[in-house]
User: Which sequence fits this backbone?
C-alpha cells in the first residue's frame, strides 16, 4: 500500500510530462488534487484528479502482498469545448504511452506500473448556474503504483 494519495502521484506524472502546471503557477492548465476551486477562486481551464476507492486485485501467494489498483477520476473544466476535449484526450494518450514511469513527490519515489483507462473521455455537460458556461469532461483510471 502506498502512503500518498494516488491523485498527488498522478498529478506529478502530468507535471513531469509538462502537460499541466501547479495551481499557483498562474499559467497553463493548473492541476488540482482532490478539489477543484469554485466561486471566486474558480479558474476557467483547470484539471482536478479525485481519488476513488481502491480495488483489491488479490494477493501474491508467495509474499502475501495485497495488490491494489488505485482508482482516480480526472475531471477537466474549460471555457472552450474543443480545447477541453483535446486536452483530456492528450492526458489519456500520455498515460497510455507510459511504461514503468518513475516519479518523485515530496522526496518519496514511486513507480507507476500501469494505468488502465476505465472510461473513455466523456462530456459531462455545461455548468447550469454559472454565467461563464464552462464545459466538464472526465475519464477514470485504475493505477498500479508501487513505492520504491
Assistant:
Amino acid at each position: 500500500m502506498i502512503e500518498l494519495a494516488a491523485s498527488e502521484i498522478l498529478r506529478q506524472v502530468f507535471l513531469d510530462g509538462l502537460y499541466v502546471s501547479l495551481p499557483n503557477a498562474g499559467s497553463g492548465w493548473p492541476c488540482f488534487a482532490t478539489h477543484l476551486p469554485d466561486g471566486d477562486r474558480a479558474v476557467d481551464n483547470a484539471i482536478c484528479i479525485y481519488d476513488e476507492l481502491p480495488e483489491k486485485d488479490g494477493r501474491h501467494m508467495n509474499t502475501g502482498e495485497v495488490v491494489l489498483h488505485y482508482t482516480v477520476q480526472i475531471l477537466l473544466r474549460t471555457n472552450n469545448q474543443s480545447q477541453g476535449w483535446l486536452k483530456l484526450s492528450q492526458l489519456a494518450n500520455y498515460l497510455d504511452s507510459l511504461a514503468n514511469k518513475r516519479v518523485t513527490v515530496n522526496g518519496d519515489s514511486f513507480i507507476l506500473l500501469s494505468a488502465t483507462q476505465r472510461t473513455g473521455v466523456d462530456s459531462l455537460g455545461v455548468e447550469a448556474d454559472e454565467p461563464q458556461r464552462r464545459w466538464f469532461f472526465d475519464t477514470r483510471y485504475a493505477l498500479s503504483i508501487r513505492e520504491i
Remarks:
- The first helix runs from residue 6 to 16.
- The mean pLDDT is 91.
- Helices lie at 6-16, 81-97.
- The longest strand covers residues 66-78.
